[in-house]
Write a structure and sequence with these properties.
Shape: globular
Bound molecules: NADP nicotinamide-adenine-dinucleotide phosphate
Largest sheet: 8 strands, mixed
Distance between the termini: 68 Å
Number of helices: 15
Number of strands: 12
Strand content: 15-25%
Protein name: 2-dehydropantoate 2-reductase
Strand order of the largest sheet: 5-2-1-6-7-8-11-12
Family: Belongs to the ketopantoate reductase family.
Order of helices and strands: EHEHEEEEHEHEEEEHEHHHHHHHHHH
Pfam families: ApbA (PF02558), ApbA_C (PF08546)
GO molecular function: 2-dehydropantoate 2-reductase activity
Keywords: NADP, Oxidoreductase, Pantothenate biosynthesis
């Protein structure tokens, strides 16, 4: 029998992953907002890929809903809302979902699986991460703009679904403990606020040394607090996180030669935080830089660079529509770092 997959959050990731599973034969229901559901039922889903794959899933081959009313028939639930929406979205499943159902979080950040587990203690809740970027184009078109598969916490309950993920071309990398992967992905996602504040596509932003210097500042600060907290991030890039942070500051030509793969991104791809700001939505900044600031407070280390990024993104959420050039943003973060060092010295005296 085909797997019945319920996707909570019909957005970029939910429609791409759910759509691919539908193409591979799963019975998919996409739960989302009316505007998005109208778009994808009018046109069906078109799912394209960096490597040239081009799949279509006609509208009569998936179901849509604004509420997860048929959660009781789902074999697998994918949670693909933004972190701020997790608790509310999964609360709608409570009392409807069958005990033992596998609920897989496909979200950035560290604690979404814990939030889901608290609401649905009777389910098999697993952490997962999407390692690629998806761009939404009008007409139900979702495009995977970077390399990468899905990283998930391994569990025997995943066994019935491995085949459909494989047929869908969604590589499922299974880890006995996903936390080190989540922390490593968080280090990469510290680029999301920088990308969003830059107002540029990812490829253009990362090709600019000053924006990369901003990311290096944020990553080094994060690595220092993670080290103090004895958190060892997994290695997701060809070079270890600490070396990658150093390499980010290299001149453009050297960076391109050594880490050119980082720039293998669709030219129009942006971070999902850039999409959130453009659409006037709340961002995931508290689940990215906020995790670092929280961890810093826990281990007694100031985190002024990540704190400044939070302030700038919150100002943008509140309507400050300015975009920052590389030198301007770097100036902001260097000033913050200098203030933080002065504060630390004063505290140490
Ligand atoms: N996009 C990417 O390329 C990418 C890549 C890697 C990882 N991620 C991560 O994947 C997760 C999903 O990101 P995304 O970009 O796919 O988000 P998205 O495009 O914003 O999609 C989520 C959708 O779910 C809807 N939603 C929220 N609460 C809901 C509810 N209770 N019931 C039904 N629908 C609800 C949202 O509507 P509203 O906006 O109206 O709330 C939105 O349309 C995030 O953690 C993100 O960081 C994204």
């Amino acid at each position: 029998m085909n797997s019945r997959v319920l996707v909570i959050g019909a957005g970029s990731i939910g429609n791409f992953v759910g759509g691919k599973l539908g193409v591979a034969g799963a019975e998919v229901t996409l739960v989302g907002r009316r505007g998005m559901l109208d778009e994808i039922t009018a046109s069906g889903l078109r799912l394209t890929d960096l490597d040239g794959a081009d799949d279509a899933l006609a509208a009569d081959r998936f179901r849509v809903a604004t509420e997860p009313d048929d959660a009781g028939s789902a074999d697998l639930v994918l949670v693909t809302v933004k972190s701020a929406a997790t608790a509310e979205a999964v609360r709608e499943l409570s009392g409807k979902i069958r005990p033992g159902t596998v609920v897989l979080s496909l979200q950035n950040g560290i604690g979404n699986d814990s939030v889901i587990r608290e609401v649905l203690p009777q389910c098999v809740v697993l952490a997962g991460m999407v390692m690629f970027n998806v761009v939404h184009h009008p007409g139900g078109h979702f495009h995977r703009g970077t390399e990468g598969g899905l990283a998930v916490q391994d569990d025997p309950a995943l066994a019935p679904f491995l085949g459909v993920f494989e047929r869908a071309g969604l590589e499922l990398r299974r880890y006995p403990d996903l936390r080190p992967v989540q922390w490593a992905k968080l280090l990469l996602n510290l680029n999301n606020p920088i990308n969003a504040l830059s107002g540029r596509p990812l490829r253009e932003e990362l090709a600019d040394r000053d924006y990369r210097r901003c990311l290096a500042l944020a990553q080094r600060e994060a690595l220092a607090v993670m080290n103090r907290a004895r958190i060892r991030p997994a290695r997701l890039t060809p070079l270890p996180p600490r070396v990658m942070a150093a390499l980010l500051t290299a001149p453009n030509a050297l960076f391109q030669r050594v880490a050119g793969q980082v720039l293998a991104i669709d030219p129009v791809a942006r971070s999902s935080m850039a999409d959130d700001l453009a659409l006037g939505r709340k961002t995931e900044i508290s689940w990215l830089c906020g995790e670092i600031v929280g961890l810093g407070a826990m281990v007694g280390m100031p985190t002024p660079v990540n704190q400044r990024l939070i302030e700038l993104v919150v100002a943008a959420e509140q309507g400050d529509r300015r975009t920052w050039t590389g030198p301007e943003l770097l100036g902001q973060l260097r000033d913050a770092a200098a203030g933080g060092s002065a504060e630390r010295r004063a505290n140490e005296r």
